[in-house]
Amino acid sequence: MTEPETTAPPKDPSKFIPVLIGFLILGLVGGGTYWWIARLAPPPTFAADAGIAAPIASDAGLPPVLPMADGDALLRRLATEGGASPQLLSWLGIDGILRRLAATIWMLARGDNPRSVLGFIELSGTFQVREEGNRVFVSQGSYARYDALSQALTSIDGARIGEYYRQLRPYFDSAFLEISSERRFDEILSEAISRVLALPLLEGPIEVQEHGALFRYADPTLESRPAGEKQLLRFGPENLARLQGQLRRFVASADLQPTPK
């Protein structure tokens, strides 16, 4: 059985598609976007005095271009200090992780499904449904598949993640320059968070309808939601509520700056 979806599922249905918005710090349009995603390998580290990489000059008014390898290393160190779960630390060990997180946030802000940058995250089990007469509903077992993932993504308290983000912000700004020089990363991050916090907690039976090899939500208001939002709804109400609480604590601590001060 495959999950509610409006497009063909990946060959491996256990691949998890959306995440990292839950962790926060931790669709892109046009050929340039896909080129950017394809080049997610980390760049070389730049030598600098006192072990701190010197920023590379950028155009006037734009954030400095910082070595992403240094940002990746800082992210991993902070996550380790914060008591991240072994599973979360293993994901943060992926090459170019900070670029992947910036791309994930950008795609979620647009409502896109960030499958292309999060293929290293997998779920166990398969999508499950239960039948009641001629009607089909999402099984609670489908939501349970996300329990371990949700626990990993919330293994560091959101308020502490906000503190860490203030240190990592220059690296996210630098990474986002590779996507767009017209908007600040904090603005994109705020939009992504607003999308997640606005998602409903789907209590009670959720009906789906089979369309060939796929399932779609029977409720047209759910089925018409953007792909990224529908993926997050598959966490189930308890896991999604946990992620939303994490984001609220993050926002209270992160000092987001959607526009320059």
Describe what you observe in this structure:
Strand 1 and strand 2 form a beta hairpin. Helix 6 (147-153) runs parallel beside helix 11. 45% of the residues lie in helices and 7% in strands. The chain has 261 residues and is of the alpha+beta class.
Characterize this entry briefly.
With 261 residues, the protein is of the alpha+beta class.
Search tags:
261 residues; 4 strands; 7% strand; globular; 11 helices; alpha+beta; four-stranded antiparallel β-sheet; single chain
Helix content: 40-55%
What is the 3D shape?
Answer: globular
Query: What's the number of extended β-strand segments?
Result: 4
* Ends apart, CA distance between termini: 50 Å
The total domain count is: 1
Structural class: alpha+beta
For the largest beta sheet, what order do the strands appear in spatially?
1-2-3-4
Order of helices and strands: HHHHEEHHHHEEHHH
**Fraction of residues in β-strands:** 5-15%
Secondary structure tally, helices: 11
Return the average pLDDT rounded to an integer.
79
- What's the Cα radius of gyration? 19 Å
Secondary structure blueprint with pairings:
Elements: H1 31-38, H2 68-81, H3 86-92, H4 97-110, E1 129-132, E2 135-138, H5 140-144, H6 147-153, H7 158-177, H8 185-197, E3 207-211, E4 214-217, H9 220-223, H10 227-233, H11 237-254
Antiparallel strand pairs: 1-2, 2-3, 3-4
Helix pairs in contact: 2-7, 4-7, 4-8, 6-11, 7-11
